[in-house]
Design brief:
Elements: H1 2-18, E1 21-23, E2 32-34, E3 61-64, E4 73-76, E5 81-82, E6 85-95, E7 98-100, E8 105-117, E9 122-134, E10 140-149, E11 152-156, E12 160-163, E13 170-181, E14 186-200, E15 209-211, E16 213-216, E17 219-222, E18 225-234
Parallel strand pairs: 1-2
Antiparallel strand pairs: 3-4, 5-6, 6-18, 7-15, 8-14, 9-13, 9-15, 9-18, 10-11, 10-12, 10-14, 16-17
């Protein structure tokens, strides 16, 4: 008890003397500056004054910022519902740059692990965006994207052909979306995206197909793509 009392006295003296308190920092930037994690075991109150307690918000409200110099506010966020299905989770990742130098080959571009599905009536809305690129070749290359859910093929795009035009390199942007329905319940589901090369119109099958890359200022530059999963479950 004495230790807690003296600690409190020290904190109060620091406030009165300097106007700011730092936890794990010697240069506090605000009245209370915590450099590290913070645990709140009861309620968090926002606003109020010396005579009125702050607002602790309501069930399922979230704390949102109003910008610099303004107090945060508790707000109710509307969760989208589609035909009785409620959005219960959003998972996203960046897809990687990669390349394929031979026909009938594939490469993993990215994956999202630990997708949580808790109800048997569900569907997943998947959105992805990936770039393909070829240079210094005079023929076309056909390719597609495969999607695996827990190692099983869930979706395949149609074959696309990228062809160099004249002396210019060629690139294509590939937005795509699809739906998987009634996936198994579980917490460790994984969605994986692969880039697949089928063939080229050149007899030697040479040339490189680039995924999520571009040629800028005489250099190949990585361009990350995206993969997003929206989980909807019956309300």
């Amino acid at each position: 008890m004495k230790k807690h009392f003296f600690t409190l006295i020290g904190v109060l003296c620091t406030i009165f003397a300097f106007g700011q308190v730092g936890v794990n920092t010697e240069t506090p930037q605000r009245t209370l500056h915590v450099n590290g994690s913070m645990q709140i075991t009861n309620e968090l109150n926002v606003g109020g004054d010396g005579a009125t307690e702050g607002n602790s918000g309501s069930n399922q409200q979230v704390l949102t910022s109003q910008g610099k110099g303004l107090p945060p506010l508790w707000r109710t966020i509307d969760i989208p519902i589609i035909d009785g299905y409620r959005l219960t989770g959003v998972y996203k990742t960046k897809t990687n740059a990669a390349e394929l130098n031979s026909n009938n080959s594939s490469v993993q571009l990215g994956s999202i692990p630990n997708i949580h599905v808790s109800k048997a009536q569900n569907f997943l809305l998947i959105l992805t965006q990936n770039n393909t690129y070829i240079r210094n070749i005079t023929f076309g290359i056909s390719y597609r994207f495969d999607f695996r859910y827990n190692a099983s093929v869930a979706e395949q795009t149609s074959w696309n052909v990228i062809t160099r035009q004249g002396f210019s390199d060629a690139q294509q942007n590939n937005p795509y979306q699809f739906i998987i329905t009634d996936v198994p319940i579980g917490e460790n589901n994984t969605l994986t995206i692969l880039g697949v090369r089928q063939n080229s119109t050149d007899s030697s099958s040479s040339g490189t197909l680039y995924f999520n890359k571009n040629y800028t200022n005489s250099n190949l530059i990585d361009k990350t793509g995206s993969l997003v999963v929206f989980v909807y479950e019956m309300s």
